[in-house]
Amino acid sequence: MANHLHQSFLDFTFVTPPRLIFGWSAATDGRLAIEAKRFGKRPLLFSGKTLRDNGTLALILASFQSSGIPATTYEGIPPEPTVRDLQDAMEGVRKSGADMVIAIGGGSVLDIAKAAAALAQTESLTAADYFAARASVPDSGGLPIIAVPTTSGTGSEATWVSVLVDDSGEGQPRKASIRGGAMMPVMALLDAQLTVTCPPTVTAYSGMDAFVQAVEAFTSKGANPFTDALAFEAALLTANNLRTAFAEPSNQSVREAMILGSYMAGVALNTSRLGLVHGLAHPIGAITGAAHGLLCGLLMPAVMRFNQDAARKKYERLATTLGIPDGSEGLIAFTERLLRDIKIPTHLSEIGLKEEDIAYIARESLPSGSTKANPRPVSESDAYSVTMDCF
Ligand SMILES: [Fe+2]
Fold first, then answer.
1. What's the 292 CA to ligand 1 centre distance in angstroms?
2. pTM of the complete model beyond 0.90
């Protein structure tokens, strides 16, 4: 792929799911089952626990049954999935004999399902080979993937990225992403009704992930006018609606705005990439087990301060359109108020991080593609001091 991060002329590759279905109750009212027929006859449906517990999975399976394509299920993916969980899922896909994968869940379910669908057929290679970069994810092939998010957050339904934890080696567990064309869904279906049952913390954390991803995609070194159009609107949608989604969980139009915003941020970041918040959130998440979106929110004001000179024009554009006074300073203050209102902690010490781990985190954040895309170049001591600011 062209290196689009360090040049002044436009040079980028934009890839996105070719089909998008957006509609309240589209996952359960039969539309998902009808749409799925375009891509296969024997779907394997990856699902999270909440979907089983609240009865939604039963509704979805019934709609597949009545459409004449009975689906089998793959369940039991933990919140922070590991390389071993991916290996299990790859074997699950092989054993199922499925000709397509439908992923319905939060970021973890989507990430595992996408990687398993893309990699299951490569018999001799293990999940660990891909994770350790001994093999790269193919650009195409694998099973078709339909992605249906149940949270408004990661935007995984729009990307060819899968984030996993590797806890197999010595020392600290590592969190990193694998990327590749075969993981790009053939279709995303956005049904905001699925997000209504999210507990308030999930709404807050995933929604904050979406907001941060929108702003980081908008200001990243890999941004261009095409991704800006998506990331800017995604930042407005999430900034204007997250507080209400948290306070009024069943507000339909607000839930719709959030799921659309998180999707648009995902579409943008797949090309533009992100920034230092995501570079730091992965090692901190791997060590503490804290929710990804919580960490993104917690780190955001300090990273915005660090980026203020490099990203000022874009922060100001956002502030002006959001009606926030005082430009980039105002946008930082807005973010801090939002974090308080949706009850996201503001210090890493509150979530159990130890000060002695910060040097390791700073070191680990540097090779990340997100850190490399940050609008201001980041040294190890920069990463250290930004993390200390959040301690
Ligand atoms: Fe994220």
1. 7
2. yes
Q: Tell me the two tokens of residue 145.
A: 């993937």
Residues 6+ apart with CB under 8 A from 243: 338, 341, 342
Q: pLDDT band for position 110 (50/70/90)?
A: very high
pLDDT of residue 186: 98
Gap from CA of 278 to ligand 1 centroid (Å): 6
Q: Burial letters for 108-145: b for 16+ Cβ neighbours within 10 Å, e otherwise?
A: bbbbbbbbbbbbbebeeebbbebbeeebebbeeebbbb
Asked if residue 307 lies in contact with residue 331, where contact means CB atoms within 8 angstroms, the answer is: no
Determine the pLDDT at residue 1. 45
Measured in Å, residue 69 CA sits from the centre of ligand 1 at 34
The third-level CATH classification (topology) of the domain covering 19-194 is Rossmann fold (3.40.50)
Length of the chain: 391
**What distance in angstroms lies between residue 218's CA and the mean position of ligand 1's atoms?**
14
Q: How far is the CA of 266 from the centre of ligand 1 (A)?
A: 9
With contact defined as beta carbons under 8 Å apart, do 384 and 306 qualify?
no
Question: Tens digit of pLDDT for each residue in 232-278?
Answer: 999 999 999 999 999 999 999 999 999 999 999 999 999 999 999 99
Asked if residue 309 lies in contact with residue 328, where contact means CB atoms within 8 angstroms, the answer is no
pLDDT number for residue 132: 83
Instruction: State in Å: Cα 52 to ligand 1 middle.
Output: 25
> How much distance in Å is there from the Cα of 63 to the middle of ligand 1?
32
Residue that is written with structure tokens 């804290």 in the block = 290
| C-alpha of residue 94 to centroid of ligand 1, in Å | 29
Q: Look over the chain and give the mean of its residue pLDDT values, rounded to a whole number.
A: 95
- Quote the ligand 1 centre to 95 CA distance (angstroms): 32
Q: What six digits make up the tokens of 207?
A: 């929604």
Q: What is the mean pLDDT of residues 337-351?
A: 97
- Residue 69 — φ and ψ, nearest 5°? -130, 80
CATH code given to domain 198-389: 1.20.1090.10
The domains of the chain are located at 19-194, 198-389
